[in-house]
Specification:
The protein is α/β, with parallel strands linked by helices. It is 33% helix and 16% strand. The chain has a single domain, classed as Alpha-Beta Barrel (TIM Barrel). It is built from twelve helices and eleven strands. Strands 1, 2, 3, 4, 5, 6, 7, 8, 9, 10 and 11 form an eleven-stranded mixed beta sheet that branches. Helix 1 (27-33) packs antiparallel against helix 5 (150-162), helix 4 (123-136) packs across helix 5 (150-162) and helix 9 (257-271) runs parallel beside helix 12. It is globular, with a radius of gyration of 19 Å. The model is unreliable at 1-27 (pLDDT under 50).
Length: 353
Amino acid sequence: MGSFDDAGPGACVGARSAAAALGDDTLGARSVAAAFDEGDLNPSACDLCPRACGANRAAGERGACGAGAEVLVARAALHLWEEPPISGDDGSGTIFFAHCPLRCDYCQNAMIAHGALGAPARVPDLAAMCLDLEQQGALNVNFVTPTHYAPHARAAVRLARARGLALPIVWNTSGYETVRAIRDNANAVDVYLTDFKYADAALGARYSHVPDYPARATEALDAMVRAVGAPTYDEYRGQERMTRGVVVRHLILPGHLDDSKRVVQTVHERYGADVRLSIMNQYTPVVATAAQAGDARARRVLARCPELACRVPDEEYEELLDFADVLGVPDYFWQEGGACEESFIPEFSGTGA
């Protein structure tokens, strides 16, 4: 999950160049609400992500992602640090979910990805959050790491739309998705804001504990492009806003410039103008900070992967951008100055949840 602040040092773009209270029901909304039993949304043998851990989440068993039967929301608020046509000037209406299918060792949102920080939310609560964010002036509704709660998120979109929601829906994901999940998102998701973390499967195993990240991410990205097509935009309250399409994010990691070049080249050659690339330089060694504070998990991670305590040299990021330019990658997003700061990480205090 990445951050761009259009009003601050983290944003550059180019090839370098509740509004409706849930008590105010309507026939349409009642019809949608009656179309699902919330208890049926949790799988009895979870296969919502490629791990397919088989957890009986309907009975409360926790999956590999850490999620059980209860949806947990860590934050629902306007967010200014996404790519410019996602956040604009007014902000993206982000709903951050707790837990994560990947649980990367270096995650800047580890407090929610690895922990259980969040407030319980049922489908009507999620729908109310969507409508409230629209009332606050959000450019879109942005579900952040929704993969393991996908059935609930889709049901909330249907309910919110029946109650008047008119914003695009952004699916903000690690990229570790199944093709079936992307197909199931049809008519619910307009924009994919997806990571492509690694070209080398060994890095996925090292940092995210999955053996098949590049293959699964490629299959999912193929499905995303088929589902929503090339990027399209409108003007919303004087701001350019993405209304359909795919943004592919890649975060350069310390010591892995060559892998980042492989990712950029693969995405560009495979998809061209059908996606927008976002090349990110905001790696923050939060795991080192946590280890210094006495976190046992972080200390184990650093003992195994000491490079995660380092920042990415500016020269390596510049080399990656030069590489993208030589390839002819058009209109990509990039970051400069101050992006790798912990102040860019949202405060997960339960705001709006």
